[in-house]
User: Which sequence fits this backbone?
């Protein structure tokens, strides 16, 4: 009886996971936005859910470093001409959002504007202190006309060099409509 109850309890969670997106042959496809990215075999999806701003998120873990990254995905329609202005406000907006993170500040030498999958992208690293530990947040935004994605991960400062290149390998595969 307990096994049957557990199965019935898990069915809604399984259905929710399938309705949010699929992972096939290493390619994650988000159903609502059409955003796709590739996860190498040593990465796993650990959770997913809904954000308060209408976005959805997928938490992915690099099993080599054990660092968890979050991928925020949001459908929206925007005039491509307005994307550069939006990108220019992203860093200040994130600093304001992180006002409860002690000393949260982006490294000026880490800010990089580029394109990923043909779409405008912005990456940066922010330093902060948490419980007396030196921490960083590595963030990359990619904006399309019909959706946007934010890849982010927080970790001890010492973990960034090894993790960043592995996360970049995932980020560089992103296709954003």
Assistant:
């Amino acid at each position: 009886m307990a096994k049957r109850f557990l199965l019935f309890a898990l069915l809604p969670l399984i259905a929710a996971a399938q309705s949010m997106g699929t992972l096939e042959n290493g390619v994650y496809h988000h159903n609502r936005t059409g955003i796709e990215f590739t996860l190498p075999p040593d990465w796993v999806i650990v959770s997913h859910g809904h954000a308060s701003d209408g976005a959805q998120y997928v938490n992915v873990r690099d099993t080599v470093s054990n660092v968890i990254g979050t991928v925020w995905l949001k459908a929206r329609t925007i005039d491509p001409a307005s994307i550069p202005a939006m990108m220019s406000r992203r860093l200040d907006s994130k600093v304001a959002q992180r006002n409860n993170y002690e000393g949260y500040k982006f490294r000026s030498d880490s800010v990089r504007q580029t394109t990923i999958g043909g779409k405008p992208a912005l990456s940066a690293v922010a330093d902060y202190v948490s419980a007396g530990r030196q921490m960083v947040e590595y963030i990359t935004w990619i904006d399309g006309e019909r959706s946007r994605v934010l890849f982010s991960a927080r970790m001890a400062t010492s973990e960034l060099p090894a993790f960043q290149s592995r996360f970049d390998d995932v980020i560089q595969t992103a296709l954003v409509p």
Summary: The chain has one domain: 2-171.
